Amino acid sequence: MIDSYYQTPSTWFPAFGHLSLLSEVTHWQPLRKWSLSEVWRITTHSGKTWIAKWARGSQSTELDMYLDVLIPLQVKTASLHSFLRTKDGHFFILEDLGSATIEQHPEKIFFIEAAKTLAHVRTSATRYLTLGSASIPQKYVISPQQYLDALTFLLDHHLLTNDDKGMLTRLSSWFSGQLTALYTHLPPTLNHNDYHAKNLVISGDAIVPIDWPNASISPHLADLYCLIREAEHFSLPASSLIETFRAETQPPHENITMPLQWDVALEWQIALGGICWLLTTLRWLLDEGVQAIPVAIQWIPGLLQDIEQCEALHEKYC
Fold first, then answer.
1. Would 101 be classed as within a structural domain?
2. Distance CA 97, CA 77 (A)
3. What is the pLDDT of residue 58?
4. Which residue stretches of the chain have pLDDT < 50?
5. Are residues 180 and 127 in the same domain?
6. Are strands 80-86 and 89-95 parallel, antiparallel or unpaired?
7. What is the pLDDT of residue 315?
8. Is 113 found in the same domain as 16?
9. Both 6 and 83 in a single domain?
10. Predicted confidence (pLDDT) per residue in 23-46, tens digit
11. Residue 238 bridge partners (DSSP)
């Protein structure tokens, strides 16, 4: 136990003696070290590996997401082994699903499987939420106003150019009404909000989403938008993922009457979901992301261009 203590990274000292697994650790492999979060792969005396996460401040939401949302909704992801909340941050240990991700193996079969996984996660979460089988704290539910607030924030931000704001002003003329339609016609469900190849682990025959700190409850379909955008880099057409998702998605429950069909205007949902995700991401980057990740300022022009593309796609299917 003493040897384990001296091998422990200093950030993890407050958790030693509280999380029993730490006394068995023989090796710490850093996977990510940011100012507000760390991720390690740890190995115990038995040779078994786990993922150890520490986070504080704005990055400390993932543990609460596990306890308040993922576990109640029975989402298939890395299981939570143990955790500790302290004034120094949240410490938690997760199942290690392996290191192979779609980012490392960007093959068509894996992207298709990721679209199936997304459909199943959303359908299952909608069932639990609509039938009242799981009680989710209201703080995780995103209202239309929050997306409108993100748009207002961007329109007032000094780092955006007049051209940027002109594009966003065009968006504001119809965005509110379309959000109302989205929230009226489709039920709330679980959104990962970072459904990218780096967070999609290849675990046996399954694709398992990991890293859930940004997850929320909303009807939008940004996760499929993000998956499609990633697949495009590898010449996989959007139609393949859209049709796979459509085929795997069923109404959440036969006794629930939906105002519109469950798969209504899927392309419209993707375009609108993309705008919701892009606005939220841009607000976070300008609000705090560029301080935590200085290189992030370079992402802003590309994200603004993506909003413009989503706007054009929305007009096509609206």
1. no
2. 9
3. 78
4. 2, 252-263
5. yes
6. antiparallel
7. 78
8. no
9. yes
10. 999 999 999 988 889 999 999 999
11. none
Is residue 256 within 8 A of residue 263, CB to CB? The reply is no
Please state the φ and ψ torsions of residue 3, each to the nearest 5 degrees: -60, -40
**Single residue among 69, 95, 121 that ends a domain in this structure:** 95
Looking at residue 219, its amino acid is: P
Domain total for the chain?
2
Q: Which residue has the tokens 């938690």?
A: 92
Give the residue numbers spanning the domain of 228: 108-317
What is the pLDDT, as a whole number, of residue 82? 98
Amino acid in the structure at residue 252: P
75 and 174 in a single domain? The answer is no
CATH number at residue 61: 3.30.200.20
Task: Write the pLDDT tens digit of every residue in 135-174.
Answer: 899 999 999 999 999 999 999 999 899 999 999 999 999 9
Instruction: Among 95, 120, 147, give the residue marking a domain's end.
Output: 95
Cβ 8 vs Cβ 22: under 8 Å: yes
Domain shared by 124 and 73, yes or no:
no
